[in-house]
Amino acid sequence: MICSVKQSALAIRGSSSEAIFRGKHSNPVQISSFSPSLSKVKPVKALVSVQKPLYLCSPGKFASAETQQQKHSLITCKAYEAERSDIETSTPSEAAQKVKIGIYFATWWALNVVFNIYNKKVLNAYPYPWLTSTLSLACGSLMMLISWATRIAEAPKTDLEFWKTLFPVAVAHTIGHVAATVSMSKVAVSFTHIIKSGEPAFSVLVSRLLLGETFPVPVYLSLIPIIGGCALAAVTELNFNMTGFMGAMISNLAFVFRNIFSKKGMKGKSVSGMNYYACLSMLSLLILTPFAFAVEGPQMWAAGWQTALSQIGPQFIWWMAAQSVFYHLYNQVSYMSLDQISPLTFSIGNTMKRISVIVSSIIIFHTPVQPVNALGAAIAILGTFLYSQAKQ
Fold first, then answer.
1. Strand 75-76 to strand 4-5: parallel, antiparallel, or no bridges (unpaired)?
2. H helices within 272-342, ranges in order?
3. 277-302 per-position pLDDT tens digit
4. At residue 341, does pLDDT exceed 90?
C-alpha cells in the first residue's frame, strides 16, 4: 500500500466535495425519514472499502494545477508490503556461486597435479629446465593468441602504460618459474613444494624490511611453524640437493616480488584474470628466450632430445606437450579463481593445492619419506594455513 499525504490537499475544492465532506461527518440520518431535499443528492459510494486494501495514488494525479505547483510542501509517507521475492534470501544464487568456486578449485588442483607429474617425468628424461620453462610459456602464449584470433576469448584492450607496469611483474614471474623448474629437476616434487610452502615467510620479511609494512603479532607467530617445518623437512630429506633447495627458495622470493609488483602496478586496470595471465606469459616468454639459448643452447637440446626419444619413445613428445599445456591451464584457472574469490579463500585454496600435489607425487613416484620428514611438511603446511588466517 502506498500512501501519500499532502497537507494542502486535505480539503477538496468544489460544492459537491463540500457536501460529501459534510455528509461523512454530520449526524446520522434515519432511512425512514428522507426529506425531499435529500432526494436530489446522488448517492455517494463509500470512500473507504473494508473488503479491499486501500490504494491511494499520488496527490499530483487528482489535484488541480495550483496544487501540483506546491510540491515543496509535501509530507510524504510511503510504506509498502514487500513481495515475497524481495524478502526471500538469494539462496539459489549463493549456492550457484559456491558451486562455481568449488569447480574452479577442483579444476585448479587437478590441473596442477597433472602438470607436476608430467613436468617431473619430462625433467627426469630431459634435464633441461630452461628449455622446458620456455616451452611451457610459448605453448600458453600460442593458445591465447589462437583464442583471441578465433574470438573464443575476447582480446584485452591494453596500452603502453599497461605493458610498462606489467614488465617488473613478468621479470619476477620468469625468475620464479625457471627457479621452480630447476628445483624440480634436481629434487623430488614433494620436497620442492614443501620448501615453496614457506613463501609467506618471504612475503612478510620482504614487506617488513623493504616496504616498511607492519603486521599483527599472530602473523609473525605463524611464521614459526612455517620456517621450522621447512627446516625440519630439508634436514631430513633423503635426496637433498643444494641446487634444488636454492631453486625453491629463489622461486619463493621471486613470486613474492611478483605479487608486490602486481598489486602496485595493476590497480584500476580492467583486464580479466585470464587475459592478464596471457599477457604475463607472453612478456615472460620474450624475457626468458634469450637466456634459455645462452644457458643451455640448441646443441645441448638436440643431444638430449635424441637421448630422451631413444629411452622413452614417442610418448616423450606427449609428455612434453602435456606439461606445457597443463602449466598454462592451471595458472590461467588460478587467476580466474582470484577474480571470483577473496584473497583469504585463495590462500587457503593454494595451501590445499600444495597438499594435493605433495601427496599425489609421493604416491605416483614412490618417493621415500621418513616420518620426521612428513612431520616437517605437515608443520610447514599448517603454518601456512595459520598465516592465511592471521593475515586477514
1. antiparallel
2. 273-295, 298-312, 315-340
3. 899 999 999 999 999 999 999 999 99
4. no
